[in-house]
Amino acid sequence: MTTRKPAVAGQFYGAAKAECIDEIKDCLPKLPLSVELPEPIVAAIVPHAGWVFSGDLAALAFSAILQANQEVDTFVLFGAVHRYIKSGPAVYHEGSWQTPLGLAAIDETLAAEIVALGARADKAAHNGEHSIEVQIPFVQYLFPKAKIVPVAMPTEGFDYHFGMRLGQMLAGRKEHRVVCIASTDLTHYGPRYGFCPQGVGPAGLKWAREVNDMDFINLALRMEADKIVNEATNKDNACGPAAVAAVVAAATALKRTRGVLLGHTTSNDVLQRRFHETSQESVGYAAIVY
User: What is the DSSP letter of 80?
Assistant: First the structure.
């Protein structure tokens, strides 16, 4: 049975166990969330940059799940694709994923059922990809008994009905507590990313955060799964739109009607707050639960 080794430990998050745990504790909110949460939470959207920039928001979503659900048996983790070039959902269907916190076991039964819904069993699709990997230590720390099913979600060949079928299947698993996670960052703005439609400087960064990011966030909150991939393709405001659309569709099938925005920030916001610096570039991050 294969074990997927970490690809970005020591870059996006700590490579040693103690360091990784310290970073997780630093990311977690210090108080229970005061916002009204769905009970249970069936799905969430999280960012996937280095923890120094987006870890607080990822931790916020996982903390909300812990607060609302207490226990989760399996997390189905839909990831943005930065390396994989084939089309259609690709499931890491057997074995485990290793992080500095140990091994996270694959829920092989559920993985096989997801493949039967129209995905492909393809462990190689996950080689070198960080969008799911950076979520796993949060799962291990907060939900030590939970299993995982990683699913790479390219936009090529995407059909949001796949997410609907997943949600319908999960609706019939009353004794199996499953949460679907979509991993995406938002607008990548600035010269480094070749995307500056509102110019270089504060006005452009403000537009990226307050207009372009929010166009995508609002679609996700309204749960318009059929529009999400086209939105990102036309406006460059998310790198994992297929992951988001699949999870929003699954949440819709699970009778959720609107998302709850827990937080929204950008790498430039974090740079200013933590390091008193600014940049010409910025990447958006959001945490949403359903």
Answer: -
**Which residue in the block uniquely carries the two structure tokens 């609107």?**
258
Q: What is the pTM of this model?
A: 0.96
Using alpha carbons only, what angle is made at residue 263 by residues 257 and 266, rounded to the nearest 5 degrees?
A: 130
Tens digit of pLDDT for each residue in 18-76? 999 999 999 999 998 999 999 999 999 999 999 999 999 999 999 999 999 999 999 99
Of 79, 114, 85, 115, nearest to 97 (Cα)? 79
**DSSP 8-state symbol, 5:** P
- At 165-175, the pLDDT tens digits run 999 999 998 78
142 by Cβ neighbours in 10 Å (0-12 / 13-18 / 19+) ranks as middle
Q: What is the DSSP letter of 6?
A: P
Provide CB contacts within 8 A for 10, sequence distance 6+: none
HSE (side-chain half, CA atoms, 13 Å) at 110: 25
- The DSSP output letter for 8 is S
For residue 195, the SS3 value is strand
Q: How far is CA 80 from the centre of its chain?
A: 8
Task: Give me Rg for the CA atoms of the chain.
Answer: 18
Residue the block writes with tokens 């990784």: 20
Structural domains in the chain, sorted by start = 3-188+214-289 (3.40.830.10)
